[in-house]
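Bench notes, afternoon.
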Amino acid sequence: MYQPSGETPATVYAQFRASVSASPLVSSVSGFFDTAGISGTCPTWHIPGNVYWGLDGFSFDFFCSAGMLQLLALAGMLVLAVGAFSAFRIAIY
């Protein structure tokens, strides 16, 4: 009654992946999100001083500090957690 085929889940997945990779949609967007890595510099700027707040002025380079990078990583994790919670809540209701 039952005649098994010679296909395994791995071969079926490999055939599916090859056919999807060859589709025009996937081949047109390949390389769209490629980046060259972290190659920029930290954003810094300087406001020249005057008599009222000192002649040295202000140098804004706090984005390059380790504490700020940790704070931005924490903010990213919080956004991810809120998004996951919202997706879970939408899926349940």
